[in-house]
Specification:
497 residues; alpha+beta; Beta-Lactamase; Helix Hairpins; Heat Shock Protein 90; 3 domains; five-stranded antiparallel sheet; five-stranded mixed sheet; 12 strands
Length: 497
């Protein structure tokens, strides 16, 4: 049971994380909240205006009555019983009763001694009323109080002698707000009906719009699924939104790169098969030649066996370079980064390669502009330097030269290898880092090598977050320039942030 509840909660959580659900909620909130606020705003505004209007209307009538009370000396003659006074009191009392009945309220006339001389309800006559509102009114300040819970409006009106501004009494009036409440109920009922209809329309619109707005993303997902399942491999296009264009462009670039990688992998497999098959074929031909001859001279037998050993060495070298290249291709391969004196490392590498250069009468020169200490992987950097210098020697002329230059600035060090060799044709410069690519295939067996050296070199340089460039003139020579950061640890740390 608990597992089902957790699964249900997870499904709801995943649903709420979807773009469709968020668009639905946003449209729903944007549509419903203003309508609710509008309903309450209109009702509150109506109630406030209705109460103000009722107050102003009643207050004007009370001021007119107050003037009558002053002009007829109602407060002074209230206790007299002559015929004329009785008629006057009857007239004013009738006006007070009519006002009370009209607004379903109650009017109290209070004299200067805080005694009630008239109560339209006939309950409090002769009693004293002392309250904060009455006291304020005797000071000339009218008061107003709206009691929404109990349903009445209470106000005080001073009875003032116009010429002297003397307050001779107070009219304390309470009127009902029943008609305002009734009107409010009618408006609330109509507003709820209208709001319900609006919510239905808004929910429908939210569902339709959320489906319509997320449909392009669904098409992107379906297209990617088709590519994943292998039903299609061409570029996809969903130009509905700028966002889908960006997503599709990024995916198409990835798809193009995957195609290139697949083509490169197929070509690599074909090249590997060819390179490994060639020595095997040579060894088979040599071995069959020995088998088919009844009596093989020892000199020929020895020559054939030396050729077989040479082919085995070549096969072994290809396999060794392939393994090195595969290790370079692993993005997660760890690098043993330590501070190294690049000058000393270069001297050591050149010391190993100078015997090979002397056999071809090639002069190797090392020129260092300053002492360089950098954070590098010594093994991988040694591969880079060794391959470049070795190639410069192999593809050089007799009595030629190789110049190795080391320099640095505050961020990078540069390792440059120049030679006076045969050079590289301009059309081949973009392909020299491809696996098994050889510029001069006719002399590749004579020169040696596997065609993997520059591919290994470039991978090792890239692992150091560096760059490698080449310039060459056919028949004159070639220059390789490697640029690597001095502080590789700091460089890798910034990339991982």
């Amino acid at each position: 049971m608990l597992a089902k509840i957790k699964e249900h909660i997870l499904q709801v959580w995943l649903l709420m994380r979807s773009l469709r659900a968020r668009i639905f909620l946003i449209i729903l909130i944007v549509g419903i909240v203003p309508s609710i606020l509008l309903r309450y705003g209109i009702l509150d505004n109506y109630e406030e205006r209705a109460v103000d209007l009722r107050q102003n209307t009643v207050q004007n009538q009370l001021r007119i009555l107050a003037d009558h009370l002053i002009s007829k000396n109602y407060l002074e003659n209230y206790h007299l019983s002559d015929a004329q006074t009785a008629v006057t009191k009857e007239v004013i009392n009738a006006e007070l009763e009519m006002l009370s009945n009209l607004y379903d309220g109650r009017v109290l006339i209070i004299d200067s001694s805080f005694k009630v001389v008239k109560d339209t309800y006939g309950i409090s006559e002769g009693k004293n009323i002392i309250s904060e509102e009455v006291i304020k009114c005797f000071k000339g300040e009218s008061t107003f109080n709206y009691d929404r819970e109990n349903g009445y409006i209470e106000m005080t009106t001073p009875i003032v002698v116009n010429k002297t501004s003397l307050v001779k009494g107070v009219m304390l009036t309470s009127i009902s707000n029943a008609n305002i409440v009734d009107t409010m109920e009618v408006l609330k009922h109509k507003a709820i009906i209208l709001e319900t209809l609006m919510i239905i329309v808004i929910v429908t619109m939210a569902m339709v719009l959320s489906l319509a707005m997320t449909r392009p993303f669904n098409r992107v997902t379906e297209a990617i699924k088709e590519v994943k399942e292998g039903y299609r491999d061409e570029a996809i296009s969903v130009p509905d939104y700028l966002e889908t264009i960006h997503i599709v462009d990024a995916f198409n670039q990835l798809l193009h790169r995957m195609k290139l990688l697949d083509e490169s992998r197929q070509e690599f497999v074909a090249n590997v098969s060819h390179e490994l098959k060639t020595p095997l074929t040579s060894m088979k031909v040599l071995a069959e030649s020995l088998i088919t001859q009844d009596s093989t001279p020892s000199e020929l037998y020895r020559e054939f066996m030396e050729d077989i050993v040479s082919e085995i060495d070549r096969e072994n070298q290809i396999i060794t370079d392939l393994l090195a290249l595969v290790k370079m291709d692993k993005k997660a391969q760890k690098m043993n980064i330590v501070p190294i004196n690049i000058n000393d490392l270069t001297e050591l590498i050149l010391k190993r390669l100078r015997p090979i250069a002397r056999k071809k009468d090639v002069e190797v020169v090392f020129e260092s502009n300053r002492t360089v200490v950098a954070e590098v992987d010594e093994v991988k950097l040694t591969l880079v330097m060794s391959n470049l210098v070795d190639n410069a020697i192999k593809y050089n002329r007799e009595h030629g030269w190789v110049k190795v230059t080391l320099d640095a600035d505050h961020q990078f060090f540069t390792f440059t290898v120049s030679d006076s060799g045969i050079g590289i044709p301009e059309g081949s410069l973009s392909q020299i880092y491809e696996r098994f690519y050889r510029v001069d295939k006719s002399h590749s067996r004579e020169i040696g090598g596997t065609g993997l050296g520059l591919a290994i070199t470039k991978n090792a340089v890239l692992m150091h977050r560096g760059s490698i460039t080449v310039t060459s003139t056919e028949g004159e020579g070639t220059t390789f320039r490697v640029k690597i950061p001095l502080k590789l640890v700091a460089q890798l740390s910034r990339e991982n942030l």
